[in-house]
Amino acid sequence: MTVDAPQAPPFDAAAESQARMRPGRPLVPSGTIAGRALVVVIAILTFLAALTASGAQLVANASAEWRSSIAREVTIQVRPQARTDVEAAVARAATLARSARGVESVRVFSKGESERLLEPWLGSGLDLVELPVPRLIVVKLTGEAASADLATLKEALRRDVAGASLDDHRLWVERLATMAGGVILVGLVVLALVIAAAALAIGFATRGALAGAKDIVEVLHFVGADDIFIAREFQLRFLRLGLKGGLIGGGAAALFLALAGWLAASLRASPGGNEVEALFGTFQIGWSGYGAIGAVVALVAAVTALVSRETVRRQLRSMA
Hints:
disordered N terminus; 7% strand; alpha+beta; 4 strands; 320 residues
């Protein structure tokens, strides 16, 4: 009499799938160390990307303000000439400027004010009596320089005022535009590099999560689930991770910029604060800046979802 060995219970793929995929349990576990680390990485990269985008916009706004301010002003320079009354020449140049079309106001710099403009280069306390310091007249226009009749004013100065010349700051406007364009281009390049780094991190994290869930993926294939369903589950999970990390990083960037703006406003009366305001404006990004931060957050979340979905589909095709 022989005793048959106990038979192993038949493998129930559906029961195994139900045990592993209980209601409410995601395909990719949410509380793992890898998931939390990915959220931190995404938050850091989003913070850097948001600061880059906001910084580029801040410089662009400041450059636009500089160019608008410079474009609305022209400078008349009256150089002292031999056997010429400088004060009479300056008065004549100011009269011609006031009579020109498109001029809003004219401000004549005194001899002392003109000499103080040279102090950053020559130092203070120097006797400039023997030095032929040019006299300056700042002419403020009602619109931009293109709308004023500067050609007629320039010709009148050349004809009637010896040693007078007109500078419309066109060269400085072009240089500011070039500088702003370069800063914006660098910001876009840095933003693209940060997004690329985020995509690489998400791709590696997705491969790791797929490798950890290989048994579950095989069971799902066994019960009839297709690659689109599995990829969608990974995509939704990583979209949540991307949104969470993006909101943390974007919120930190917005808070940092708000604190920086408040600090710049509180230090505005100090010499250092005046220099910062002259360079970056009021250091306020406004609603458009916060909108840019929101766009960066949405972009990071979209990249997270798309990269994870494409990575899963490629890995599933290679496994098949």
